[in-house]
Design goal:
The chain is of the alpha/beta class and 475 residues long. The protein has 20 helices and 15 strands. The strands form 4 sheets. A 6-stranded mixed sheet has the order 3-4-14-9-10-13, with helices on both faces. The chain has a 5-stranded parallel sheet with strand order 8-5-6-7-15, sandwiched between helices. Strands 1-2 form a two-stranded antiparallel ribbon. The longest helix is centred in the N-terminal third of the chain and has 18 residues, at 118-135.
């Protein structure tokens, strides 16, 4: 399997090359040169593997379709080491919970940092360590987080040989619990940088540094954001696991509702569906920062500036530039790298927007690819959290509440709707208390985390300052 860039660079690259590289040299995102197809016989075989051998074995089977430059025995060992009941709390890893007829939650938040990002980040940590040791190299990971990516990356990479992490987050815009998870880590290979701006400023800095090819090469810069294909690939697995748990036979279809900000989580669903997993609809649920909902309704993709990016009670979705969206648009445009570059480099760079509403291919977003969308507000979140607790005795976090709210607008008879749970409620305790009048449960290992000493630097939203810090720490 070779990989190419969404912006036209078709130089053949293998998985382990793009694992360590992040963005392509032309500024695009990597995708496989084709999506392996899962026919009926293969789907039945994967169902048997999942039922008989578990999640780690399913992960190995899916990953093997895309990774041919790691020996199979080594890749299996990595999967077995990653997806364990000890790390994720349950033998099922991503157990399905029925809320009501036709509506399910897929629990993705049982990992070390209580968020779905652990599902991919734990794998990424082992892959990085494996490949760096094989090459005798080091890697400096530069990432941006709106809340959960940062802690998941840092917990996965802390203490890993040959790896430093430089994680950017928007100063003061994460929940107190999220900040404490990251900033309380004292490991010398972990560097937290609070940027005076919003998440999109952090993301822009990561891209700017990655696009400085000389700096990137000198300091061995890699990324763990969802622009890294390996992370998105790991997320494809839990779509298969959710499908197998919600169905009895491979002739059935399901839909997935996915709380979405940066489009990485739901883009993994797009990959699974394109491979042949019987997904009816992919429901994109946004909060008040509704750039993705606007696109799927109108064909207009319009990024917002910092002043127009709302600070909400589902802060991990407070994003107005969805990095992974470029991967889907590349597929929507027939894998035309020049056209994709014209949209994401030229049009966004000049006008801050592009419009596919009059392009005949826009209809394919819903018709061919199954995408549909909706929006949730703070009032919706409170009402949904309250209603799910009262009716089902289940407390959900704010982002999952956005997913449930929008999912209910798109239910179809006979088609199970699986809402991807994104985090445990304790990460957003203030809003849970506002909704329910009581604090959510807190895992014992996180008692008193907000009071721990913190290790963090505050910097302006400026790529030069971040590069200077990286250079100082690496010299």
């Amino acid at each position: 399997m070779n990989y190419l860039s969404t912006r036209g660079d078709a130089t053949p690259r293998k998985f382990c090359d793009i694992l360590l590289e992040g963005l392509a040299p032309d500024g695009g995102l990597y995708l496989p040169d084709h999506y392996p197809r899962i026919d009926a016989a293969r789907l039945a075989e994967l169902r048997r593997v999942h039922a008989g051998q578990g999640y780690a074995a399913l992960a190995f089977e899916i990953l093997s379709l895309y990774i041919d430059d790691i020996p199979a025995a080594d890749l299996k060992t990595i999967c077995d080491k990653t997806y364990t009941a000890e790390v994720f709390g349950t033998r099922e890893i991503v157990p399905l919970k029925k809320l009501e007829d036709g509506l399910y939650l897929e629990a993705l938040s049982n990992g070390p940092t209580l968020a779905f990002k652990d599902m991919a980040m734990q794998l990424l940590g082992h892959l990085f360590e494996y490949e760096l040791a094989r090459r005798g190299e080091q890697l400096n990971i530069l990432g941006a987080t709106s809340g959960d990516t940062g802690s998941a990356a840092e917990y996965a990479m802390r203490g890993k040989r040959g790896i430093r992490v430089f994680m950017l987050s928007p100063h003061g815009r994460m929940s107190p619990f999220q900040q404490a998870q990251m900033f309380s880590l004292q490991d010398p290979n972990i560097h937290n940088i609070a940027v005076e701006g919003v998440f999109d400023d952090c993301q822009d800095i990561v891209k700017a540094v990655s696009n400085d090819l000389a700096f990137k090469a000198r300091y061995k810069i890699g990324t763990v954001n969802s622009i890294n294909w390996a992370r998105l690939l790991a997320q494809v697995v839990y779509y298969f696991a959710g499908y197998f748990q919600a169905t009895q036979s491979d002739g059935e279809r399901v839909s997935f509702a996915v709380p979405s900000g940066n489009f990485g989580n739901v883009c993994a669903g797009h990959v699974a569906r394109t491979m042949g997993l019987p997904i009816d609809r992919l429901v994109v649920a946004t909060n008040e920062n509704d750039v993705l909902d606007e696109f799927f309704r109108t064909g207009v993709y319009r990024v917002r500036g910092a002043a127009d990016t709302h600070e909400t009670s589902s802060p991990s979705m407070d994003i107005s530039k969805a990095s992974n969206f470029e991967r889907f648009v590349f597929d929507l445009l027939g894998r035309d790298g020049a056209a994709t570059r014209a949209m994401f480099h030229d049009a966004l760079g000049t006008d801050g927007r592009f419009d596919l509403g009059s392009d005949a291919r826009f209809a394919d977003a819903a018709g061919r690819y199954g995408f549909i969308s909706g929006k949730s507000t703070h009032a919706d979140r409170l009402a949904t959290i309250r209603e799910v607790d009262q009716r089902h005795g289940v407390v959900i976090d704010t982002h999952t509440a956005d997913g449930v709210k929008v999912a209910r607008q798109h239910l179809r008879p006979g088609v199970p709707m699986i809402v991807l749970e994104t985090a445990l409620p304790i990460k957003f305790a203030a809003t849970i208390e506002e909704a329910l009048g009581r604090a959510p449960d807190r895992p014992a290992r996180f008692e008193g985390i907000e009071a721990l000493p913190r290790r963090v630097r505050v910097l302006p939203a400026d790529a030069a300052g971040v590069k200077a810090l990286v250079a100082r720490e690496c010299e």
